[in-house]
Amino acid sequence: MADSVATVWMPVDDMGRAVKFYGEVLGLTVKNEGDDWSELDAGGVTIGLNAREDTHRGGTGGAVLTLNPSGDLFDEVVRLTDAGVEFAGEVSQHPWGKLATFKDTEGNDLQLFEAPPA
């Protein structure tokens, strides 16, 4: 039985570009950076950026990384849009929360999530 998440791996084509996106644009703390593997801290969960092998370049699909913004979801959408991030449509609103969907620089699916008020 699993009791926690150790690391989330995100495949990347360009390590420098990906580290810059996750570190500077999303504001996560870069723990270490290398050519084939880099790590960022996402509030106690490690996000590993894993260089794709040449045979798997440009891949799409796979896991979706969902992030909790530190403030208001709409404010974060504006901040990220100003930083050049393109969102896939409008923020979707559901009884269970709000989602804003976008991609990282490597084509991986990301979302911002905000739970409804308690």
From TrEMBL:
InterPro entries in alphabetical order: Anthracycline_SecMetBiosynth, Glyas_Bleomycin-R_OHBP_Dase, Glyas_Fos-R_dOase_dom, VOC_core
Pfam families referenced in this protein's UniProt entry, alphabetically: Glyoxalase
Top-rank taxon, per record: Bacteria
Domain VOC span(s) in chain numbering: 1-115
Gene3D superfamilies linked: 2,3-Dihydroxybiphenyl 1,2-Dioxygenase, domain 1
Cross-referenced SUPFAM superfamilies: Glyoxalase/Bleomycin resistance protein/Dihydroxybiphenyl dioxygenase
Protein name from the UniProt record: VOC domain-containing protein
